[in-house]
């Protein structure tokens, strides 16, 4: 009976360790290249900003796999939030995306998240 309990506890510990190792490998690493990621861009003035974002993606060879749009009214101004699912080529890093999009004058924030 005691041996059975010890084997059961040992098996559970091994399974927990393997699951922890698997999840740890899946963690989002901002310093390592990600093929696909989610980029959330919050901005003002849609007419000016969207062509600049689209031009950057085209110039960098970044593929937009999915797009979600959101519009929020804050006082008298309107704040837009676009959520992009991106495919990054090997030559583009996450920091390049954040710095290039943040350089656009009307962009308020840029966030990157794992898939």
Textual characterization of the structure:
The chain is α+β, with helices and mostly antiparallel strands and 115 residues long. It is built from 3 helices and 4 strands, in the order H-E-H-E-E-H-E. The chain has helices at 2-25, 46-60, 94-102, and strands spanning 36-43, 63-74, 77-87, 107-114. It has a 4-stranded antiparallel sheet with strand order 2-3-1-4, with helices on one face. The longest helix has 24 residues, at 2-25. The protein is elongated and about 70 Å long. The protein starts with a helix and ends with a strand.
Helices and strands in order:
Layout: H1 2-25, E1 36-43, H2 46-60, E2 63-74, E3 77-87, H3 94-102, E4 107-114
Antiparallel strand pairs: 1-3, 1-4, 2-3
- Shape descriptor: elongated
Q: Could you name the ranges where pLDDT drops below 50 across 5 or more consecutive residues?
A: none
Q: Share of helix among residues? A: 40-55%
- The percentage of residues in β strands lies in 25-35%
Give the SSE order as H and E letters: HEHEEHE
Count, helices:
3
**How many strand units?**
4
Instruction: Give the end-to-end Cα distance, rounded to a whole number of Å.
Output: 45 Å
What's the mean pLDDT score?
86
Biggest sheet details: 4 strands, antiparallel
């Amino acid at each position: 009976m005691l041996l059975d309990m010890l084997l059961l506890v040992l098996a559970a510990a091994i399974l927990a360790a393997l699951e922890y190792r698997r999840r740890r490998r899946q963690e989002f690493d901002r310093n390592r290249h990600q093929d696909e990621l989610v980029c959330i861009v919050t901005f003002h003035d849609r007419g000016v900003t969207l062509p600049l974002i689209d031009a950057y993606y085209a110039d960098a060879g970044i593929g937009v796999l999915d797009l979600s749009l959101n519009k929020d009214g804050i006082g008298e101004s309107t704040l837009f939030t676009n959520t992009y699912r991106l495919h990054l080529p090997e030559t583009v890093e996450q920091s390049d995306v954040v710095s290039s999009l943040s350089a656009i004058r009307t962009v308020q924030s840029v966030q990157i998240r794992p898939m």
